Amino acid sequence: MTQDPLFKPYSFGPTEKEQMDRDGHFVLPGILTDYACGRLVESLSHIETLCAAGVKDPLPNHNAAEYDRYLESLIGHPQLLALARSILGDNIRFDHCVTLNRPGGNQGIRWHSHEYAEDDPSLGFVRIFFYVNGFEAGDGNLRVAPGSHLYRDPNIDAHSDEEFVERWMAGKTHPLTGEPLQIIDLTAPPATVALMWTHAAHAVHPRRSESTTRWSVVYAYRNPGRRSLARWITEAYERKPIPGAEGLMSLY
Ligand SMILES: O=C(O)CCC(=O)C(=O)O
Ligand SMILES: [Fe+2]
């Protein structure tokens, strides 16, 4: 089955991969096709409607692909898998598809990191964020601390910049460059994709109350080998045949 294009032409070769491995994240501005952006807004609105109606078990935002045919169709989309494999290598599994819609006034998220295979740097876990209508600094933007992923700390947790700096960042340097770690507020034009290693410290700035909903969704993939706490796939869904996603749905 051929699928409608998800990405416009973009470049993610050895130079870009090296930058991602150094910084912990990499932004691909404006690469989602107009078609994909249109379908994504429809699907992400659909998930919001289900959440508002109180649908549970599983939660529509956590197990988003289980509730929406277009979101499901992207799990095995050749362009998304090619991007995931250019980061992780050939042997990958799907981990989760979670909607990250943030209406005006949304609180954002505190500083945190995520777990996976702390003891084995050969096992990677990457989040591929789709920021359909993008974001500006100070308005629902993703925030990062380049180099923090290299500490492979799954427990970063701070409610403010001050706490993050005092309790975690102080005294740490970038393991590859030796520079002091610093906080960066990202910006993203519409149709942006952002890649992030799971151990990277990140936060989301609150969305301004007068802003429209930030439409976004994340697809996460990893090398198999460990349990994954973020894996939201029901047992029944793991068995569902999804074109293009054959062999990707199991834990190991
Ligand atoms: O909403 C965002 O931009 C980031 C969400 C997040 O922290 C995550 O999915 O791990
Ligand atoms: Fe996160």
List cofactors, ions and other ligands: 2-oxoglutaric acid, fe (ii) ion
Major beta sheet summary: 5 strands, antiparallel
Look up the CATH topology.
Jelly Rolls
The backbone outline, from C-alpha atoms, is globular
Rounded to an integer, what's the Rg over CA atoms?
17 Å
Unreliable stretches, pLDDT < 50, 5 or more residues? none
Give the neighbour order of strands across the main sheet: 1-8-4-10-2
Q: Look at the structure and give the mean pLDDT.
A: 97
What is the count of β-strands? 10
What is the element string, with H for helices and E for strands?
HEHHHEEEEEHEEEEH
Q: DSSP strand (E) fraction? A: 15-25%
Give the number of helices: 6
The count of domains is 1
Decide which structural class fits the backbone. alpha+beta
- First and last CA, distance: 26 Å
Helix content: 10-25%
| The CATH architecture | Sandwich
CATH class (first level) name:
Mainly Beta
Description:
The chain is an alpha+beta fold and 252 residues long. The chain has one domain: q2cbj1_9rhob like domain (Jelly Rolls). It has helices at 14-23, 34-52, 69-75, 78-88, 161-169, 235-239; strands spanning 25-28, 93-99, 109-112, 125-131, 142-144, 157-158, 184-185, 192-197, 202-204, 216-222. The chain has a five-stranded antiparallel β-sheet. Fe (ii) ion (FE2) binds next to loops.
